[in-house]
Predict the 3D structure of the following.
Amino acid sequence: MQNNPEKFGKTPHRPSLWTRADALKVHADDPTTTQPLVSADFPVLSDEVFIWDTMPLRDMDGNITSVDGWSVIFTLTADRHPNDPQYLDENGNYDITRDWNDRHGRAKMYYWFSRTGKDWELGGRVMAEGVSPTVREWAGTPVLLNERGEVDLYYTAVTPGATIVKVRGRVVTTEHGVSLVGFEKVKPLFEADGKMYQTEAQNPFWGFRDPWPFRDPNDGKLYMLFEGNVAGERGSHKVGEAEIGDVPPGHEEVGNSRFQTACVGIAVARDEDGDDWEMLPPLLTAVGVNDQTERPHFVFQDGKYYLFTISHTFTYADGVTGPDGVYGFVADSLFGPYVPLNGSGLVLGNPSSQPFQTYSHCVMPNGLVTSFIDSVPTADGGIRIGGTEAPTVEIRIKGQQTFVVAEYDYGYIPPMLDVTLK
Ligand code: FRU
């Protein structure tokens, strides 16, 4: 496709703010925004690998898509090392916690397939060793492009640096399973610019990752969400009246919250294929509130834009807190203004008795929320490491509110539509 710059004029907008006042409304253990307890006797997808961030195959409109009746998910994946001397403790026992905590440094993209939308079978690595330009293959989004089975996998190539990249391949089905072919040429798309989005030089703890491309249901253009931090040297950000919001007396003090500078970034494609992108100002900033708004994604419902993003307790700023989980914001148009769902932003958090039970929630357009199990407390006072799919939860989205309404099987990710390959 030819570039057509006229068609993609600049969209001036001001980022919406998730304020400290909004975050003061976040409360763990509200039953309408809390994930049911995950039992410590959960099943494990694989004894060979840990999985965490789960990326269901979907189309450019965000619909979860099966191909020829096969559901497909991509996962960040790392080998488990039960017999590796490096991961034995002083008593010679496997230190699974250390193995799990080290996983980010060796994350690779794998895929799984299923006839039932659960009971996933391991397909293998998406890209052969050496294809991806960096050590870590971090989260992104696989998009089914057409009935020929072509798939664009957008993901983050990390260490050295952090680059949003994409790689094209094809999904092939038989009556016995699914294979992915191609995925041999990785194309770098863009990196943080230091003007809108913080660079590694500005902050060694910067975040720039997790692309989520989509077609805007209203203007029909191709955009991409991603996680960023607001540009500027670490420590130079101002937490002023706008970032603080309308707080009660005694809450004006912001401590060291200038170090928390998360934002949800957006870029627009200059071409139809999504090979040429222009970064725009963030949709949402959380300066003075939280340092990570990870894996941002949309649900388009009732003519509204529901923006979801995952975040942690440990990334909150001084004086505000909330559970690990998924947070959400709603607007009537793509560029906002966005209002925190449920007043606070919290949509589905871990219960305080099991603060690390799940993470990396992905809200699908059918209201189902998938996540992975991180660690669950055990009766003997220890923890059990997951590295596997959590039970799927259903939320109902109504105007500016959300409600937890149901729970399903582990890793239940049913298709919303099926594409028959030609
Ligand atoms: C979320 C996340 C992503 C990142 C990946 C790294 O769980 O932190 O933002 O891409 O995990 O493992």
